[in-house]
Amino acid sequence: MRRIAAALSVPLLAVMVLAGCGSSSSPSTASNPNGSVAVTGAFGTTPTVKIPASKASGALDIKTVIKGKGNVLAAGDSFVGNYAVYIWSGTKNKLALSTFSTGSPQVLAADVGLPGLKQALTGARMGSRVLAVLPPKDAYGSTGNAQIGVKPTDTIVFVVDLIKDFSSTAGASGKQVSNGGGALPTVTASPGSAPQVKIPSRKPPSKLIVKTLIKGTGPPAAKGQTIVTQYVGYNWRTRAPFDSSWKRRQPFGFTLDATPAQIIPGWDKGLLGVPVGSRVMLIVPPADGYGKSGNAQAHIKPADTLVFVVDIIGAVSK
Questions:
Q1: CA–CA separation, 54 vs 92, rounded Å?
Q2: Which regions of the chain does DSSP assign to beta strands (E)?
């Protein structure tokens, strides 16, 4: 979904790559200012970060600032978390991104992107706050990241709170009540794998349809929560899939009914109030999808109706 230019959502971290704990990897010395970065504040609150007014060293420094007691984050897992990101350039630094200030935790992968951050997060326990000071070679390397103003010589400082972990194969956990069929697409699936959708040879419905396939027993998804999902999306016109979190082996998260919206209208409307653990089929007409513009990257035309099968595997409040 992130691959197709906000096919559903534009998360804050779309311009940066979070990847997968460890104790300090390098000592704090006069020759290693990276080890002198300090973080204070309680878990779940905006951290206070103090970065020395000197040039960073080339050392990777990782610290568990707050040690949690929850599950250990495995290399293939994802998690809901908050983060703050600082760019340390020369003797100055600035805050680049923060979900603490927006109040919208995000779903992040443990095993993708920046090598230093992967090392910092893999093995961390839920409930932990991790500090990772990444020299260029452990962050964006010799290319930097021009989109967010990171130069090839910049050091990146991450502070990450790990809230709740999710397996790459997590799916709906409730009782199956339907597989669709009739005038609607038919859905078949095996546990831990992407559902298969067979779309009938007829015109699609003209209005949004929400069909419960598996009914979960968790609390209903509520406005403002970070909703964690697995999904597959099909185009009714082509009867073929165009995107899947299962294929990427990474659950997808977004803030439900956010302002401004983070998701297409069909998802905001269709998933509100659905119990966690459920699987629902959303048949999304153009007005509740991509409208008159369509989505060229996903080969979605303005008149296309979309079919999503969505598992709600978690809901985390601010």
A1: 7
A2: 38-40, 48-50, 61-66, 78-89, 92-98, 106-109, 129-134, 155-166, 175-176, 186-188, 196-198, 209-215, 226-235, 240-244, 252-255, 279-284, 306-316
H-helix or E-strand spanning residue 317:
none
114 close to 138: Cβ distance less than 8 angstroms: yes
Q: Using alpha carbons, list the distances in angstroms from residue 62 to 37, 38, 77, 87.
A: 10, 11, 20, 16
Tokens of 271: 């998933």
Fill in the amino acid letter for 198. K
Rounded Cα gap, residues 312 and 218, in angstroms = 10
Collapsing DSSP states into helix, strand and coil, what is residue 287?
helix
CA dist 48 and 100 (Å) reads 11
| Strands 78-89 and 61-66, sheet pairing | unpaired
Q: What is the pLDDT of residues 228-276, one digit of tens each?
A: 999 999 999 999 999 999 999 999 999 999 999 999 999 999 999 999 9
Opening angle at CA 153, ends 150 and 158, nearest 5: 55
Residue with tokens 């534009």: 10
- CA angle 34/36/37 to nearest 5° reads 80
DSSP 219: P
- What span, in angstroms and rounded, lies between the C-alpha atoms of 161 and 280? 30
